[in-house]
Write a sequence for this structure.
């Protein structure tokens, strides 16, 4: 519902971006914002290829939905790396609920994004006022599929939409989220330990996984919790 968090990232990152994968929920307001966004980007960056991945819900508000969201994001990440052979992946975690932002940040660290970023507007009240001022006009994009009609809707408020999507670079900050690279061999070691119910793990690492809710103790041994099983499925890409 805040399309400028994507367009300002593309506009202000200062890195060449050829492809954008846009994750959206199946909500009318979000669909409208996504069409406004993709139209504005196509006009400013005609070479930019935009791929929209529609999630199967209008919100992500349960732990089951959050794990599924995490799994979808991880599969997209692997597809960009392994199939499309992207030189770099810049992960923008702005927008959506806080659980989505934190989940994407974790995925970015585990799967070694080339940068995890968040957009901060210097005066959030101003951008929110602008969004609400044009909310009814933006909603006009919600269920329109005809490219000519979409273009006509944009041109009716071209100056306002351009100002909304591409504000002055001085009005917002692109913050790089601190991440540490996750060594592949250590991740593999943890995954093998999770698959083997703790076998091969140090006592300290088993204790850590218990504390994080991935293992639970059963007598003198440990076993995966449902939470741990769900996380393992995401890491394995199942």
């Amino acid at each position: 519902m805040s399309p400028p968090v994507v367009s300002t990232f593309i506009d202000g990152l200062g890195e060449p971006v050829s492809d954008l994968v846009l994750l959206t929920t199946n909500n009318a307001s979000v669909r409208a914002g996504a069409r406004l966004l993709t139209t504005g980007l196509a006009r400013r960056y005609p070479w930019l290829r935009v791929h929209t991945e529609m999630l199967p819900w209008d919100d992500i508000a349960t732990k089951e939905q959050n794990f599924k969201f995490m799994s979808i994001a991880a599969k997209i990440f692997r597809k960009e790396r392994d199939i499309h052979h992207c030189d770099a992946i810049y992960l923008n975690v702005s927008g959506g609920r806080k659980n989505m932002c934190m989940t994407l940040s974790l995925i970015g660290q585990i799967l070694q994004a080339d940068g995890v970023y968040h957009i901060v507007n210097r005066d959030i009240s101003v951008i929110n006022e602008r969004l609400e001022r044009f909310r009814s006009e933006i909603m006009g994009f919600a269920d329109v599929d005809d490219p000519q009609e979409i273009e006509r809707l944009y041109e009716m408020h071209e100056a306002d939409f351009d100002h909304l999507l591409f504000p002055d670079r001085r009005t917002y900050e692109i913050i790089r989220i601190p991440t540490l690279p996750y060594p592949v061999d250590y991740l593999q070691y943890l995954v093998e330990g999770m698959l083997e119910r703790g076998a091969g793990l140090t006592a300290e690492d088993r204790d850590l996984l218990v504390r994080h809710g991935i293992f639970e103790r059963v007598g003198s041994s440990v076993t995966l919790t449902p939470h741990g099983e769900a996380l393992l499925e995401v890491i394995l890409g199942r």
Q: What stands out?
A: Residues 43 and 197 are 53 Å apart (CA to CA). The chain has a mean pLDDT of 92.
